[in-house]
Amino acid sequence: MKTSLSTRFLSEDELVAECRLGNPRAQRVLYDRLSGKMLAVCKRYLRSTEDAEEVLMLGFVKVFRGLEQYRHEGSLTGWVRRIMTNTALSYLRSQRPQHVDIEESTACLTPVAAMAETDLAAADIMRMVEKLPNGYRKIFSMYAVEGYSHVEISNLLGISEGTSKSQFSKARAYLQRQLACCEVGLGQN
């Protein structure tokens, strides 16, 4: 009787050990287990689905090449998430300028459609976050979603802690204006 690979690797440690040996089926199982969550991480930093998928692939190459460095301190998912975040940040640094200021006149450009009558769903808010300019979205995602401190963000991005705080504050203000626009749109029903 042949057992499926995913049931054969019941523990995370066993799966990591097989991946370290270069077992392609084990690598596929690890990819299948984590790729959905990691694509969501990549999408928080990159607007384009194609770019997010490219970063996902680049990130998993780094994961498989760097598995010898994984020390089983903390979760494997957290370790992979950090690699994906760093890969997305490197990709963004190579593509576009770091910071963009938003003019006040753009405050109410795109209302969120298909909302509940009075409550915004988490998916609606994430869509708003995805529409933030790159610099704002990156710092907002790192601080509010991923849980990095402003000190960690400044070290990762090579910016000052004050810049990180300022960009986060501007992102939050932008999102608050978007939410206000949505509330006005809801009140018109």
Number of β-strand runs: 0
Task: Show unreliable segments.
Answer: 98-119, 184-189
Total domains, how many?
2
Mean pLDDT: 78
Query: What's the CATH H-level superfamily name of the largest domain?
Result: RNA polymerase sigma factor, region 2, helix turn helix motif
Organism: Hymenobacter saemangeumensis
Domain RNA polymerase sigma factor 70 region 4 type: 124-174
Protein name: RNA polymerase sigma factor
Domain RNA polymerase sigma-70 region: 30-96
Summarize the structure.
With about 190 residues, the chain is mainly alpha-helical.
Write up what this structure looks like:
With 189 residues, this protein is an all-alpha fold. It folds into two domains: 5-95, Rna Polymerase Sigma Factor, Chain: A, CATH 1.10.1740.10; 104-187, Arc Repressor Mutant, subunit A (Orthogonal Bundle), CATH 1.10.10. The chain has helices at 5-8, 12-20, 24-45, 49-66, 76-95, 122-130, 134-145, 150-157, 161-187. Helix 2 (12-20) packs across helix 3 (24-45), helix 7 packs across helix 9 and helix 8 packs across helix 9. Residues 98-119 and 184-189 have low confidence and may be disordered.
Helix and strand layout, with pairings?
Elements: H1 5-8, H2 12-20, H3 24-45, H4 49-66, H5 76-95, H6 122-130, H7 134-145, H8 150-157, H9 161-187
Key descriptive features of the protein:
disordered C terminus; 9 helices; mainly alpha; sigma factor; 189 residues; 68% helix; Arc Repressor Mutant, subunit A; Rna Polymerase Sigma Factor, Chain: A; transcription regulation; RNA_pol_sigma-70_dom; transcription; elongated
